[in-house]
Each structure stands twice: as C-alpha cells, then as structure tokens.
Amino acid sequence: MTTATSQTKTPPKPNTNPAPDQSEIQNTQQLDIDYTTSELIRRMVKLAWHYKFHAIRLLTVQLILLAVIISTLGLTGLGIDIIHKGFNPEAKAPNYPFSITPPTTWSALQTVATLAGIILTLALFRFMLERFVTVWKSLLVQTMVVDLRAAVYDKLQRLSFRFFDANESGSIINRVTSDVQGLRTFVDGVLLEFIVIILSLIAYIAFMLQLHIGLTFACLASTPIIYLLVVVFSRIVRPAYRENRRLFDSAVRVLSENVQGVHVVKGFGLQPQQTKTFSKANDDVANHKNFIFKNVSTFIPIISFLPTLNIAVLLIYGSYIFIHNPTFTIGHLLIFAGLLHQFSEKIHSISQIANGMQRALTSAQRVFEIQDTPIEIESPDASTSLERAKGKITFKNTTFSYTTDPDAPPVLNRINFTAEPGQCIAVLGATGSGKSTLLSLIPRFYDPTQGTVLIDDTDLRNYDLFDLRRNIGIVFQESFLFSHSIAENIAFGHPEATREQIEEAAKIAQAHDFITNLENGYDTPLKEGGNNLSGGQKQRLAIARALLLQPPILLLDDPTAAIDPETEHEILSAMDAAMQGRTTFVIAHRLSTLRRADHIIVLDNGEIVEQGTHTELMEHGGHYRTAADLQIADPHSRQILGLTT
Q1: Dihedral sign for Cα atoms in the order 637, 642, 643, 645
Q2: What does the H/E/C string look like for 594-623?
Q3: Rounded to whole angstroms, how far apart are CA atoms 36 and 80?
Q4: Omega before 495 cis (within 30°)?
Q5: How many other CB atoms are found less than 10 A from the CB of residue 133?
Q6: Is residue 459 scored above 90 in pLDDT?
Q7: Is 423 helix (H, G, I), strand (E, B) or coil?
Q8: Which helix (H) or strand (E) holds 255?
C-alpha cells in the first residue's frame, strides 16, 4: 500500500462535480457521421457483392423472363397480322421473325393455333420462372438480414461503454432491427430491380427501334422529364426520411422508459401524462410520415401518368405510319402498345425504386455509423497474456474524464495508490465523487485520460482484454439478470460450470437456501430483469455469478445496498470467506462493510482526500469520521464498533 496512514487535503472542497449524466457527456462516439450519397451507394454495392452468387442467379432468371416477355409480345403481334391477312387477303403481309415461315400447306388457323400453343408454353415457363424469382429473392433477403444483424450486433459487443453512454438504447435497437431491414432493400428492391429495369428498357427500346425509329423517339419523348422528377423527389424526401427515423427513435425511447419505469409512473399516478407524452411522440412520427406520403403520393402518380402520354402519341403518330408505311402492320402497333405498357410498368417501378433508394440511404447511414464507430477498448496487436493475476493493482497519476472539453473538471484527478495482492480496498465518497468510475477503469470499461492503471506492474492496455476480464469478478450496483434459469444466470460467465460449482458459489453468496425453496430450485426461470426476485435475492445471485469464476480480483459496487440488515450479516460473513486470497475493491457506505477493509480510500470531487485504516481515519477526524458519526449516534453502538468518542 502506498501509505498506511491518513492523508488529508484541507480545506475540503464542496461537491461540485457530480457523476456526469447523459446530457453532460460530450462523447466522441456519438452516432453522427456525415456520409456523401456516392459513398453510401459505393458501400451498399460493396455489401451486395458479398451475395453475388444469389444476385447473379436472380439476374439470369430475370433476363430469361425478359426474353420470354418480348417473345410473347412478338408472337402475339405476328398472330394478329396472320389473322388480319386471313380475313383480308389484301392486308399487309406478316413479318415473320428470322425469316422463319410456316409450311405452305398450313392454313392461317393452323399457324395461329401453333403460335397460341407456343405462347401458352411461354406463359407456363414464365410462371415457373417468376416463382423461382420470388423464392430466391426471399432467401436472399433473409440471408442478408440475418448476416447484417449479426454483424451489427457483433460490433456493438466490441464497442466501449463510452459508446453506450453517448447513444440512446432506442436508437441502437432501431438500427439493429428496422434499419437493417431498410438497408437490405437496396439489394433486392433497388440494385437488382434497377439493373433489371435498365436491361429491360434497353431491350424494349432496341425492339421498338427495330420496328420504327421515328415512332420510338416520339413515344419516349417524356423520359427526360421523368429523370428530372426523380432527382427533385430524392432531394426532398431523403432528409425527411432521416428526420422520421430520429422521431421514431424518440418514440421507442419513451416506450422503453415507461415500460422499465412502470412502477414509478404508477406510483406517482402519472399514467395520463405519460400516455400524452407517448401519444405526442407517436403523432410526431405519424405526422412526419404523412409529409413523406404526400410527396410520394404526388410523385408516383405523376411518374405513372407521363407514360400514358406515350400511348396517345402511339395512337396518333402510329396510325399515320400504319397508313403511309407499307411494311408497318397492325401487329407492329400491337407490339408497340405492349412494349409501351411494359415500359410504363418499369417507369412506375423507377418511382418505387427512387422512394426505396431514399429509405435505403437513410438506413445505410444509420447502420454504417455503428459499423464505422472506432473500437476504443481492444486488445493490442502484441498483447500480454494473463493466465491468473497475482492481484497487485496500481493507480499511477490516473486522471479520467467523460468529456472532451478541456475546461471541464475530470471525474478522477491524479489518483495514486497501490492495492497489494489479497488486500480489501474500500472506497467511500459522496454521490458523484468518482467511486464507480474508479472501479470501471480496472476491467478497462474505460481507459484513463492520463496516467495508467497497472495489474502486477503491467499497464492494463498491454493485456489481452479477454484474459484481463476473466481475472476480474464484478458485482454492479444494479444487478442485471437475464431471462434464463437461476443456474444459467449464475453460470453466465462460466457456462461450462458443473451444477456442484454453481451451488457452491450460491452457498458462499448465501443464495442457496432461498433458491432451493423455490418450486423449481436452480431451474427456476427468471422474468425479464429478474423481476420475480427481491432486490436482495438478485444481489446475491450477482455475487454468486462473480464468485463462480474464482477470480483473483473482485470488484463490488456497494454489494449490501439492496440487502436488509439481517441478510447483510450473512452476506458479509460469506464475503469474508470469498475475499480470502483475492484483491477486493468494495464501494461501501455502511461501517459494517468499511471496517472489514484493509485500507479505505475517501474520494471527493474525483480526488483522494483521505486514506488509511478504519482506526486511523476515525482518529483523524476528517470526512470519514463525519460519515461515521452520521451513521452511529448511540454511544453504546459506538463502543461496540470500537469508535472513540
């Protein structure tokens, strides 16, 4: 230990540096990265390339479908010309493709019947191809969504606490769920569809040009207008989609907070006010979405209307050509009409793609922001392994701040002390003095802003992160339990533990008795957050979970805070045994816990203002003595605890 005597700074400073809340943290890991549209598109295309086999298969089938559609239209037009010629011998002769003509012995009816059979066969073939497209597209979508969510979730697991301090849980959840869905629409709903549409339009235009060049240009004169409308629509709608996602994040946050804080809401009788709050957040989402829908509902009909002008041009100009061009037949007019209809459908699809593109860009930005967030806390390239730590922990000129503002006071300021192996270090201080932050630096939930933290004389940043944390057992101030069985919760950090090991850890944490009294014992399933247990029971399970790893270092964030006095005695007795041979840091306010420590550190405004043993600090008469006097006013109790008057 750095010192065995009391160290005091005088005069004590007022507590002007409370623990930072969300609004006070200026965090470099706030999700707000500015991407260009071209960069987002490039990255989405790169993402799609990972699924090139599925995409190429789909595109191949789509191209075959395109050939079937054009062939069907061509054969239909040819059939009309044959029928026309059959009824009117003076009508224009049919133009057989590739100079393939039926046998001279066939009648017009036989030729048309053969064409009808071919068209029917093509229709059945088209049905099968469209079914394959539907199934394969669904498989592609599901594969992408699963892979993307897994990738984003994996990245979240590797991000530091600083990231989660800076971003709301509702926003993070939405990015993993709905934004991943929005991003995948780029592949199946934008990229593949766009390629198919471009190839289709090229094929349609080429076929029309082969029939008549002038009529083709006349019928497609409105196409540049469509392009301009798409550009204008995109500039209006994309910011609207981004704002809508932000509003949706807020609505989810309100819902999440009210579900988690339902006891507080009902306890204060604020259900009507909370209902209004959620309704407003929900209405904000709906109203903003209505703005998007109004733009979409205006844009899509205009895009759909423009191709109908092509039909009017076809009827007027096409009729003129039919009359004056001896080789232009009724069948050609029918083929032109069919191609323009297909062209119109593809143009309508472009309007849907333009809308989907804006949604995909918004979702892509929100997903890529997570993917591009730097991992602040990770193992170095040449890390030092740590099989089992001896337990010596040193803070050397350690300073830490949550904010990047150089004028803001740090949460911890120039902390210096050493915990020898096997010692119990108690940390005392007012709310916001930096106690929990001090403990958070040991498992590298955060890295110091300045200075170092060492275990066994090695900087924590040199250790393999997994090895480091396997050497540390942690009991947080708020014990979080998962919706699994009690045994699975105790074995959470050591899944391969045997039932005997689980029960032994529970016995040390004084949890075995209440567990065995439950109907299903260790197999009792816990509700969300362990809500079917009392606060003391949850705390004891958290202690058992930490002890199961048999760690050489224990971090206890006020472990007796949620435990009644009777249970506290049992827990403290169990902890005395559990702490044997381990370096233990315990945040505590009760003298019953503090007196068990080998060394006590008193924090105020992020600085060590006193440290020493219980007896030394009581004799000194500083912060610690003041805190003790507030807890014990009865002279008889003071004598039992060995306190001087």
Answers
A1: positive
A2: HCCCCEEEEEECCEEEEEECHHHHHHHCCH
A3: 52
A4: no
A5: 18
A6: yes
A7: coil
A8: helix 223-260
